[in-house]
C-alpha cells in the first residue's frame, strides 16, 4: 500500500525548465533542460521502435522512453556541464561522473520509499541497461546535432564547429536506427512551418 508522504521530487525536477543548455555559447535559440529531455525521449522512442521493427532488436520501448525522459534530471543539482569541459580530460570526466552518480542518488532519496525501486531503474544511470543507455545517448547526440544545425541555419557561426564535431560523433555510432533517423526525419528540421505544411 502507498502511504501519503510529502515529497519534493517533482517540485525539484520542475526547476529543469530554468536550466539553460549550451551555456558557453551565444545562442540564437534558447533551450532548457526540460524541453531537451522531452525531445530526447521522443527521439529515443522512435530509435527503439525502429531498432525493433527493422533491425531485429527486442528492447522495451516504453522503458527506454521513460529513462530518456528522466536522463538529465541530475542536472537540477549539478547544472548543465558543457561537453567540452565534461570531457576535457579523463580526470574531469571521472570526477563529473561521480558527481552525477551522487546527484542521481540524492534525487532518488527525495521519493517516497515505496517508489524508489521503480525510479532507480530510470533515474540512476548505472541501473539503466547498457542497450537502453546506448539508445538514449544516440538520441541525445541527435538532439545536439539538430540544435547545432538550427543555430547555424539561423546565422549563428558559434555552432559551426560544434555541428561538424557532433555529426562526426553521430557517424561513429554503429546503430542502423540512427542512420534511419538521420535519413528519414532529420532533413525536415531545416524547413519552415510553411514548407512543412505544403
TrEMBL record:
Q: What is this protein called?
A: 5'-nucleotidase
User: Record's Gene3D superfamilies?
Assistant: Hypothetical protein af1432
Among NCBIfam families, the record links this protein to: PRK03826.1
Enumerate the Pfam families for this protein: YfbR-like
Q: Which residues form a coiled coil?
A: none
Q: Where is the HD domain?
A: 33-145
Which domain of life does this protein belong to? Answer: Bacteria
Amino acid at each position: 500500500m502507498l502511504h501519503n508522504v510529502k515529497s519534493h521530487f517533482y517540485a525539484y525536477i520542475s526547476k529543469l525548465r530554468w536550466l539553460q543548455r549550451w551555456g558557453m555559447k551565444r545562442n540564437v535559440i534558447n533551450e532548457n533542460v526540460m524541453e531537451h529531455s522531452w525531445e530526447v525521449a521522443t527521439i529515443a522512442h522512435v530509435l527503439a521502435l525502429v531498432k525493433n521493427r527493422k533491425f531485429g532488436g527486442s528492447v522495451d520501448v516504453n522503458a527506454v522512453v521513460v529513462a530518456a525522459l528522466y536522463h538529465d534530471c541530475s542536472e537540477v543539482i549539478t547544472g548543465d556541464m558543457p561537453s567540452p569541459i565534461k570531457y576535457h580530460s579523463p580526470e574531469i570526466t571521472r570526477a563529473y561522473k561521480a558527481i552525477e552518480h551522487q546527484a542521481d542518488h540524492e534525487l532518488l532519496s527525495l521519493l517516497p520509499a515505496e517508489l524508489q525501486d521503480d525510479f532507480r531503474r530510470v533515474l540512476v544511470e548505472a541501473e539503466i541497461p547498457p542497450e537502453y543507455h546506448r539508445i538514449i545517448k544516440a538520441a541525445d547526440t541527435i538532439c545536439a546535432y539538430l540544435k547545432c544545425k538550427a543555430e547555424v541555419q539561423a546565422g549563428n557561426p558559434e555552432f559551426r564547429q560544434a555541428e561538424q564535431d557532433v555529426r562526426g560523433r553521430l557517424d561513429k555510432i554503429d546503430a542502423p536506427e540512427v542512420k534511419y533517423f538521420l535519413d528519414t526525419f532529420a532533413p525536415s528540421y531545416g524547413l519552415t512551418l510553411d514548407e512543412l505544411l505544403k
